[in-house]
Write a structure and sequence with these properties.
57% of the residues lie in helices and 3% in strands. By secondary structure, it is mainly α.
């Protein structure tokens, strides 16, 4: 069975986007993930100390016949039992999950102020919440989501000026700097690449 991979944050240059932050709601697992510095990379779940013993147990269950539904059910049961042992997430951890969901699902949230208004939180409270459970600022989370959406819209042919305003940037150069920092391309270079006019290596 291939190792599970957990994608946390970031814009994938080769495919324009990957999924945004996944909030980990079990506090013990959350602390291990944040200490592993997974905010900007792919992490093998079995790299986490809490899950290391799980790898051998799951592999043993799947070795005989990896296509056997009973083997899958047994492996799933082992994983579910481990996560159940973490207990119910506290209300702040659940709120961190809500922060992520709102940013992912509501395109009208383009600033920390927008997010604070929806959640009814003060900015400092939101900053502390995100730092504790996500390991990054709410501004970072929102920016990454905007850049993910930018990749989708550029592929769809949206004009860069229109896209910059749509994503809540005050000016196009600011948008261009953020996009290049995340992907290695300017928005114009990326647009040309996906339309087949330029090479595929970032500058």
């Amino acid at each position: 069975m291939s190792r599970a991979r957990h994608s946390v944050h970031g814009v994938a240059a080769s495919q324009s986007v990957t999924s945004i932050t996944t909030a980990v709601k079990g506090c013990a697992l959350s602390r291990q993930i944040r200490s592993a510095s997974v905010t900007v990379r792919l992490l093998g779940l079995f790299e986490l100390p809490l899950l290391q013993d799980l790898e051998g147990e799951v592999r043993d269950l799947m070795t005989g016949d990896p296509h056997n539904p009973n083997s899958h059910s047994a492996a799933q049961g082992v994983i579910e039992n481990l996560f159940a042992s973490l207990g119910v997430p506290d209300k702040n951890a659940a709120l961190a999950g809500e922060v992520v969901s709102l940013v992912e699902q509501d395109p009208l949230i383009t600033s920390v102020r927008d997010l604070c208004t929806v959640l009814g939180l003060q900015e400092r409270t939101l900053e502390r919440l995100c730092a504790r459970f996500l390991g990054v600022s709410p501004r970072w989370v929102i920016r990454q989501r905007r850049l993910q959406e930018a990749g989708v819209q550029i592929r769809a042919g949206t004009s860069l000026a229109e896209l910059s305003a749509q994503l809540g940037y005050t000016d196009q150069p600011h948008f261009s700097r953020d996009f290049r920092a995340a992907t290695g391309w300017t928005p114009g270079e990326f647009a040309g690449m996906v339309q087949g006019r330029t090479g595929t290596e970032p500058a």
